[in-house]
């Protein structure tokens, strides 16, 4: 702990600035996206949505997020990380505003498609910017702290919902999501590109996005994509339906909790998640990413049982929510582990592709949960998250451990030709 604090004391102002701006953007992504989950029962009632349709509106954002991740990851490798981030913050702000003014589920669908483009394009350039600026000895710390912004954004969303929905409804809640985006957009105008990217840009060779699928990178790309697919299936299958499951009647596989109990459990889920990210940050740079990821994934799998089979018992729900919140913070490993596997010229493309492929495929889990919930209830349907969490941990274990490597030294192997 003291060693980490001593290292943090040597971090420069520019490095802190990059982290804060990336965290703000990612937390706003989480807040804007998860606002939908928090008001899903209200939207479903107003638009007369079936569970499968409501789940589809949740999952469709991952379709556009994948496209955004692919396009803006490639763009960040070409025009720079900070410039790309300005575009993404504008996109997800427009998507949030569109959701507020939607008059039917089709308009809401279109708004969420725009939101997904910005959300998918946000993460890769933002994480790459931070990891290329921060020192190697603190790379996992930086990765986990930035990733914790998702849980922070969820907490903000819960608090905002409690304060705004009773007075202005779910549309007012979406409008609120636009305001902080203006602050983030202004802050990003002052960001400076990482030195390692500027040096790579002047190099004689150039990489193309297709080389993410060339040996020796193909194996890394496949394994990391699978780890993210199963990881997102675990998290989204639980998180998207969490408010609906907690408020649902016992006769339909719900937990029959009061609104106060639901608010407490939602906050607990994300506060514990923040603690999980910070715990990962303190340990990963010293113990390695693979073992910790596997341990965190096992905790998430363990938490599925008391959560899904609680039958309204508060103690079991609390235990399940704590284990799931802590365990699903395994995403804290992803940024640093991936950045250390790819050269600078394709790093943002690799981060954007693997992370958003996970979103694209794993993001369809809420649809499956919704379909199964029709016949068995959301509680039993949530058991699907158990094998998904275990498979995510297994895939991650087979990746190489490269903690501490200097990103500038992750070079192009012999025989790999530059893209034309």
CATH topology: Growth Hormone, Chain: A
Ranges where pLDDT stays below 50 over 5 or more residues in a row are: 414-420
The overall number of domains is 1
Q: What is the overall number of helices?
A: 20
Number of strands: 0
Give the % helix: over 70%
Oligomer: single chain
Shape-level CATH architecture: Up-down Bundle
Give the full name of the CATH homologous superfamily.
Answer: MFS general substrate transporter like domains
For this structure, what is the CATH class? Mainly Alpha
What is the CA-CA span between the terminal residues?
47 Å
Strand content: under 5%
Average pLDDT taken over every residue: 84
* Shape verdict: globular
Helix/strand-derived class? Answer: mainly alpha
Give the SSE string.
HHHHHHHHHHHHHHHHHHHH
Give me some keywords for this one.
420 residues; mainly alpha; Growth Hormone, Chain: A; 0% strand
Please specify the SSE layout and strand pairing.
Layout: H1 2-8, H2 13-38, H3 40-47, H4 51-79, H5 81-100, H6 105-133, H7 139-147, H8 149-176, H9 178-188, H10 195-201, H11 217-239, H12 242-247, H13 259-287, H14 289-308, H15 314-327, H16 334-339, H17 344-362, H18 365-376, H19 378-381, H20 385-397
Helix pairs in contact: 2-5, 2-6, 2-7, 2-8, 2-9, 4-5, 4-6, 4-17, 4-18, 5-6, 5-8, 5-9, 6-17, 7-13, 8-13, 11-17, 11-18, 11-20, 13-14, 13-15, 14-15, 14-20
């Amino acid at each position: 702990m003291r060693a980490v604090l001593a290292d943090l004391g040597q971090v420069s102002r520019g490095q802190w600035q990059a982290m804060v701006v990336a965290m703000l953007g990612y937390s706003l992504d989480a807040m804007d996206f998860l606002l939908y989950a928090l008001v899903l029962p209200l939207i479903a009632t107003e638009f007369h949505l079936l569970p499968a349709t409501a789940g589809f509106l949740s999952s469709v954002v991952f379709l556009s997020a994948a496209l955004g991740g692919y396009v803006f990851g490639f763009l960040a490798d070409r025009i720079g990380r900070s410039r790309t981030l300005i575009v993404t913050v504008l996109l997800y702000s427009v998507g949030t505003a569109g959701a507020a003014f939607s008059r039917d589920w089709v308009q809401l669908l279109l708004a969420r498609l725009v939101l997904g483009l910005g959300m998918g394009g946000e993460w890769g350039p933002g994480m790459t910017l931070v990891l290329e600026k921060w020192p190697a000895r603190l790379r996992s710390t930086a990765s986990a702290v930035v990733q914790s912004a998702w849980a922070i954004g969820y907490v903000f969303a819960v608090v905002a919902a409690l304060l705004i929905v009773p007075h202005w409804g779910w549309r007012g809640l979406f409008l609120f999501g636009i305001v902080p985006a203006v602050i983030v957009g202004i802050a990003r105008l002052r960001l400076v590109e990482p030195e390692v990217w500027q040096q790579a840009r002047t190099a004689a060779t150039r990489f193309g996005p297709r080389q993410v699928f060339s040996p020796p990178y193909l194996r890394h790309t496949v394994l990391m994509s699978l780890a993210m697919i199963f990881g997102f299936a675990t998290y989204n299958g639980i998180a998207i339906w969490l408010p609906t499951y907690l408020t649902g009647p016992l006769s339909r596989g719900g937990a029959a909790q009061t609104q106060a109990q639901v608010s407490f459990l939602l906050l607990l889920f994300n506060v514990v998640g923040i603690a999980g990210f910070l715990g990962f940050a303190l340990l990963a740079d010293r113990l390695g990413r693979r073992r910790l990821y596997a341990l965190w994934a096992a905790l998430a799998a363990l938490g599925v049982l008391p959560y899904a089979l609680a039958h309204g018992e508060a103690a079991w729900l609390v235990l399940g929510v704590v284990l799931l919140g802590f365990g699903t913070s395994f995403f804290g490993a992803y940024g640093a582990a991936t950045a250390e596997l790819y050269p600078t010229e394709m790093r943002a493309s690799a981060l954007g592709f693997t992370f958003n492929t996970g979103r694209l495929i794993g993001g369809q889990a809420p649809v499956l949960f919704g379909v199964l919930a029709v016949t068995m209830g959301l509680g039993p349907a949530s058991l699907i998250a158990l094998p998904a969490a275990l498979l995510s941990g297994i895939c991650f274990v087979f990746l190489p451990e490269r903690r501490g490597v200097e990103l500038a030294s992750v070079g192009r192997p012999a025989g790999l030709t530059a893209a034309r």
